[in-house]
Predict the 3D structure of the following.
Amino acid sequence: MIRVEGLTKFYGSVPAIEDISFRVERGEILGFLGPNGAGKSTTMRILTGFMPPTSGSAWVADMNVAERPLEVKRSIGYMPESNPLYLDMTVTAYLGYMVSLKGVAGAARRDAVARVVGSCGLESVASRLIGHLSKGYRQRVGLAQSLVSDPPVLILDEPTSGLDPAQIIEIRNLIRSLKGSRTIILSTHILPEVSLVCDRVVVIHQGRVAFEGALDSLATSVKEDDVLRVSAIGSAEALQGRLSAVPGVRQVRRTGASNGEVHFEVRAERGREVRPALAAAVPAASGQLTELRRERLTLEDLFVRIVSGERKHEGEAAHV
Amino acid sequence: MCSVWLICKRELASFFFSPVAYVVLAAWAFLMGIFFSGSFFNYALISMQLARNPQAAAQMNITPTSAVLEPVFASVSVVLLFLTPILTMRLFSEEKKLGTIELLLTYPLRDGHLLAGKFLSVLLLYLMMLALTLIYPVIVGLHATVEWGVVASAYLGVFLLGSAFLSVGVMASSWTSNQIIAATAAFMILLLSFILDFMAASVGADLAAVLRHLSIGLHLRNAIRGVIDTRDVIYLLNINILCLFLAMRSLEYYRWRA
């Protein structure tokens, strides 16, 4: 549905993106991740036909953006990062204006506006001026604008930025409800959003694709030891000795003690199940197990690791 | 073509939503009213004096049209110098400031349609302003004979002049996201084109002819006397084309570097 090949954009002599390539299949929600200034917005602006790339090509709905800009623009709903709106229009007037610019007129226009006013929860503010609306409602109006012409492709640039947690959940649910019927590219730097909404992610960093694939493979792409937390009551030395002897364990480190309870951080070979053996090692050291859990690498950790170039983390810094 | 009209309608709605349209229309009606009543009463005074002196009246070749309406039309260019930058300043600058230009440029619109819609909106507003002044020839017509041909020619001239002024303003607005700068730039360009006329007085004959031709205000002189000179028409249309063309380039440039 969307194909990007070797996209490069220079602002003057400064490259914003270099040789970006990825594809999005029909009905898929692609998470577009990257730190601020990585080139997310630039890529999206090229896809929407707002600006031309320095080199490379993009296809949206199987049409080349540079060759058939008007058709491409008709099949895209776009919500820019800044969510620009005409503050001097009412919600319905604005949506009606925007949809008619996409060539929808007459009764179809009224229906389209009524449909998105309903689906975006704007009924209560439909006749109010956009300038008088709260940020959350404005964000919904922005999203409604991108949806109003019922486009097969949606490009949303940080649709939840600046919202409170309840509003974020609402917008997220709204986006999730569109799943399947539309192809969506969603840029964000709020990572939980990605795991909740997206099928696949593209991480871009310093203008280049740092990772492309499913979220699960994002986790396995980081080559590092598994980290487990073990707490037990007993002798620290004996426990440490027994735990270190478990096959697959690379390192055991004491991280603290409280009320006779000792805490350990155990680093084990990646993917190897060492928990039963660890659990058995504690009674063997005459201790009582109080806690045993595997630390999951959060999306944040993965993200930081990918954008920091998967540098080898050593010693203390590795799990902070 | 449909999108041109949609954009034009939105701009007009926006003009009348904000006080801009009312302020400009009121200022226009007030200033033109002063000019008209001034020349109207002045003419009344002269014609009373001439009524006592029929010989002098026969020698002086004045008509109600030339004595009352001509000065009013001549003053239009000065009033427009101040009012048109205010009308045009927000057209693109506001979109740039709000960021809505980014949205519009990702809509299935040609740049030319966007530009045409915006220009058309101020042109229609200007026609509204001109329509208000129709009352002056009507008032003169109630008391004396009006040469309607001259009036029509004057309106054509004034319309073309205003359209050229507005295109300068549209161009200036496409340059910046700051409305004040857009208005100032348009005002400076228009003022400069007026001053060319004064500058012509202090240079050699050849250069003076060029400067006079470039001076925008002078191209109204023939039309308000009832003479439609194709040179004036072409000059004013050229200003339109040049400025709108440059505004198109500026939009294109905005896409490349935004």
Notes: The radius of gyration of chain A is 25 Å. Residues 226-296 of chain A form a domain with the Alpha-Beta Plaits fold (CATH 3.30.70.3190).
